[in-house]
From TrEMBL:
The keyword Oxidoreductase applies. This is Aldehyde dehydrogenase. The lineage of its organism: Bacteria, Pseudomonadati, Pseudomonadota, Gammaproteobacteria, Moraxellales. Signal peptide: none annotated. The active site is at E228. It comes from Acinetobacter sichuanensis. PANTHER family: ALDEHYDE DEHYDROGENASE, ALDEHYDE DEHYDROGENASE ALDX-RELATED. Residues 15-453 form the Aldehyde dehydrogenase domain. InterPro entries: Ald_DH/histidinol_DH (IPR016161), Ald_DH_C (IPR016163), Ald_DH_CS_GLU (IPR029510), Ald_DH_N (IPR016162), Aldehyde_DH_dom (IPR015590), Aldehyde_DH_NAD(P) (IPR012394). Keywords: NAD, Oxidoreductase.
Length: 485
């Protein structure tokens, strides 16, 4: 799946004017970084609050821009874009003064007479490359964290959501000088030009394939990176689960934003004893939520569209490939290319060679896979790359703990889906193929900060262990070594 849109190699010679403009912005931010580094907690809080108020004043414009880009429902804009951003802003503003204070740490006996602390300093000039699926949230939440840490930032929104990108740029220009925060709009070539710069930190949200491109570019300058990627996030539904609640929560989490969510449930592993009952619960809940016919669902204003025709064709191809190998559609399966609409679809009886089992779906298609024993479900998950999220539905606490110990995921939600991304007290991020590093709240502040170690020497006995290594010095070192060991 591809939530950003640039290829591994540029397709043409870069425009010299664009190159010069990016260099001008980068150098102006590099010069201004010292000023921002010296800013107080109060000054940073004022900037974040100003940004928050600006966002809240333009909600209607944001709703319209999201609808124009791919018919995102206003309620989903309010919840996943605005509310998530405001929650982050409020949490950061409440805690920033505490986070910025130097943190005293213990000193061991060998360093008697000294004191140690960690001070948090900004990394410097940062690049944020945001995706199209939640362009507002995934631009402004990391931006808030970067501002809190005292960095300058160049933000590259996705060209696949052009109206949202333009609004993001407008809001940034209303609130910041470009020497502190700048928005650079453009296509894949622009992203490549930016990645050639020696940024102090790069924060990228998108696909694992493009995450590798970003990491390779960052390696040229040894820039630190945060990669927020994706993958096939599984759901385990045990036979002890409340099937009705599980169906209700999965339908919302999977089909919000037409399934174009990095931590959306990708497939469901369901115990065979309750698989048929669960299929009926899903079918009933889907009909209740979005309508029972193709026409009703196509006319339902709560369903977004697929972002572009390439993604539409890819998703249709996954369904057709699964059917070719014997899969059965429980409900849905219809589409309308003229509107880039794909009906919410639940599919089962999938053959191992089906592409839908190996490729991240990133669309409104939910496969069901049966299992007889929990170890079969765990093995299925562990044979694949580590997911961004794992969802567990069940009421057997011992089994839930067993699943947690036997699997790895960026985050996990028990008897719910997607809510781990809404708590700013929790780190949000993946593992290996699903990501590198985390953010939100304190974790975001630390992501955009360098934790600097500082030792203050008040007095020390270590001077006596210095060269020249006379017999007496060697003996004292030997005694001290045995003592500390």
């Amino acid at each position: 799946m591809n939530a950003s849109n640039f290829n591994s190699m540029p397709q043409s010679e870069p425009n010299s004017a664009a190159v010069n403009e990016l260099e001008r912005i980068f150098q102006s931010q590099r010069k201004y970084a010292a000023v921002v580094k010296a800013s107080t907690a109060g000054q940073r809080i004022d900037k974040i609050n100003r940004l928050k108020l600006s966002i809240l004043s333009r909600i209607k414009e944001l709703q319209q821009a999201a609808f124009d880009d791919f018919s995102k429902p206003a309620a989903e804009v309010d919840f996943w874009e605005v509310t998530a951003t405001v929650l982050e802003a409020n949490y950061v503003m409440r805690n920033l003064k505490k986070w910025m204070k130097p943190k005293s740490v213990p000193t061991n006996m060998a360093l008697m007479g000294t004191s140690s602390q960690i001070i948090y300093e900004p990394k410097g000039v940062c690049l944020i490359i945001a995706p199209w699926n939640y362009p507002f949230n995934l631009s402004f939440v990391p931006l808030i964290d970067a501002i809190a840490a005292g960095n300058t930032v160049i933000l590259k929104p996705s060209e696949l959501a052009p109206r949202m990108s333009a609004l993001i740029a407008d809001i940034i220009r209303d609130n910041f000088d470009e020497q502190e925060v700048a928005v650079v709009e453009g296509d894949g070539e622009t992203a490549h030009l930016l990645l050639q710069k020696p940024f102090d930190h790069i924060f990228f949200t998108g696909s694992p394939r493009l995450g590798r491109v970003v990491m390779q570019a960052a390696a040229q300058h040894l820039s630190s990176v945060t990669l927020e990627l994706g993958g096939k996030s599984p759901v385990i539904v045990d036979k002890t689960a409340n099937l009705k609640k599980a169906a209700q929560r999965l339908i919302w989490a999977k089909f919000s934003n037409a399934g174009q969510t990095c931590f959306a449930p990708d497939y469901v592993l369901i115990h065979e004893d309750v698989k048929q009952s669960f299929e009926q619960e899903l079918k009933q809940q889907l009909g209740k939520t979005y309508g029972r016919t193709f026409d009703a669902r196509q006319n339902n204003q709560d369903l977004a569209r697929i972002v572009n025709h390439a993604h539409f064709q890819r998703l249709n191809g996954l369904v057709q490939n699964a059917l070719l190998h014997g899969a059965q559609i429980i409900t849905g399966g219809g589409s309308d290319e003229s509107q880039r609409f794909i009906e919410p679809t639940i599919i089962t009886d999938l053959a191992e060679q089906s592409e839908i089992l190996s490729e991240e779906i990133f669309g409104p298609i939910l496969p069901l896979i049966g299992f007889q024993h929990i170890d079969q479900a765990i093995e299925h998950i562990n044979q694949r790359t580590k997911p961004l999220a794992l969802y567990i539905y069940g009421r057997n606490q011992a089994q839930i703990e067993y699943i947690l110990k036997q699997t790895t995921a960026g985050g996990t939600c028990i008897n719910g889906s997607g809510l781990q991304a809404m708590n700013p007290s929790l780190p949000f991020g993946g593992v290996n193929t699903s990501g590198m590093g985390s953010y939100h709240g304190l974790f975001g502040f630390k992501t955009f900060s360098h934790e600097r170690a500082v030792v203050k020497v008040h007095f020390t006995t270590l001077d006596m262990f210095q060269a020249p290594y006379t017999p007496l010095v060697k003996k004292m070192i030997s005694v001290a070594t045995r003592w500390f060991v």
